[in-house]
Each structure stands twice: as C-alpha cells, then as structure tokens.
Structure to design on (85 residues):
C-alpha cells in the first residue's frame, strides 16, 4: 500500500457513508446495479464463451452484478477494489 492512504480512506468513507446513494442491489452507485449492467453481463458472457476465457480479473466495486454473467461459474474470478471494506 502506498504511503499516502488518502485515496483508500476516501473510497472507504464513500462506501461506508453510502455517498453514492441507496440502490437496491449495491452501495457502489447507480452504475453498479444489476439492471444497469444487464447488457454488459450478456456481452461479457459471450466473450467468455467465444474466446474460452479461463481467468477474469475484475477491478470492481461491490460485485453486485458480476454473478449475473453467464458462464462466470466456469472461470477463475478475481475481484479487486481500492477499498478494503
């Protein structure tokens, strides 16, 4: 972790205080809802199948929608985030 923890602390604070608002599926903002990502889930699922993807690295929020990706259960999935929460 870098010496300056301000970015980490900022994202922890945003998440803890729900600064992106209250949404049914997520605390990571309206762009992280299942509904907002339906098309993206299908697209990523197609990529996984077409190219026989075995590993996925996701720089993500709270992973609210990723479980809806078709075929994700067949790959090694790694999710990382700037927040430790």
């Amino acid at each position: 972790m870098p010496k300056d923890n301000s970015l980490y602390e900022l994202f922890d604070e945003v998440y803890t205080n729900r600064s992106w608002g209250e949404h049914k599926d997520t605390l990571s903002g309206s762009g992280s809802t299942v509904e907002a990502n339906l098309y993206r889930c299908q697209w990523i699922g197609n990529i996984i199948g077409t190219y026989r993807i075995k590993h996925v690295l996701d720089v993500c929020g709270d992973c609210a929608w990723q479980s809806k990706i078709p075929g994700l259960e067949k790959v090694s999935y790694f999710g990382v985030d700037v927040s430790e929460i």
Remarks:
- The mean pLDDT is 87.
- Strands lie at 55-59, 76-80.
- The chain is about 30% helix and 10% strand.
